[in-house]
Amino acid sequence: MAQMVSAKGHCFDDWESADGRGHTYAMDALMLASQKTGLSLPLLIALAQQESGMGKNIGSSGAGIADAHPSRDAPLFWIFAEQFGYDPKLACASRRPGYGWGGAIGVTQVIPSTFAELNGYTVVRSKTQFSARIRRGKLVTTANDVRIVQWFLNRRGYRLAEDGRMGKKTRSALADMQKRAGFSRTVCQKEIGSIGGCTRAYIAVKGGLVKISYNPRRDKVRKFYGLSKPVDPWSFQGSMLTGAYYLKKLYDRKGRGNRILFSLGAYYAGPGGSWKRGQGYANSVIHRAKLIDGRVQKKLQEFRAFAISKGFRPVYRLERM
How far is the C-alpha of 51 from the C-alpha of 53, rounded, in Å? Predict the structure, then answer.
């Protein structure tokens, strides 16, 4: 599959690429997601459009790992990027919005911690962790954060007092370490000499503060779709299948009421957020889906023929979930 790569690094699959029969890779993933989850094809397309312009704007304005939650998501972002063959300092993800954190990956913008939970990864964090506070749009650096950095730098051969003070010697050693780690000419370059999101993720992973293990029996996405290997969150297929599965699980949690509205609102709100905050988002996705549904009906026979050739039975009616 062809891949689209910007100056920032790996962003998204060329989802419009097609095989010899003219079937696009995006349609292949969408059909599988629709057939397995029961989510309508227009709804899944609308979700991808709402989240990332169907993959076209992933990373176009994002800051990647630098804007992910520094203890919950950024280390996992780093680990997954390396695991799937990308440079964590270049791999694209969403920017931090005004109401929360960035770092969401792929066409359906799944955050790393959610990806880990759904795809069979157990996360182990040490008792020592970086802080995760924002003040006036900037990440706050505490004395404990500085002590963690000094501890890590001393393990790398620097000789620093672990006193929690960001003095000239600590700053110089940190800048040297960051340059050696390849921060230059990446989204992490602006952190050289300071303790930002990239730096916290790098130290957490390389210092062993955050570790993961994979268990295929706990991989809900792989098991649900009958896949032969774990999915790549930066690929169209991996992101779409994970996002569709997550939306289905959210839908299944709501016993009564408007289950589509609830599930989309909860998808938008993220971990710990109120689904009601996402009602505007949900209505926007549903509106998109209705418009798409009208267009899809014109190509219904083409889609049905493709589905039959793949052995799928996708759902086309928006109101069915």
Answer: 6
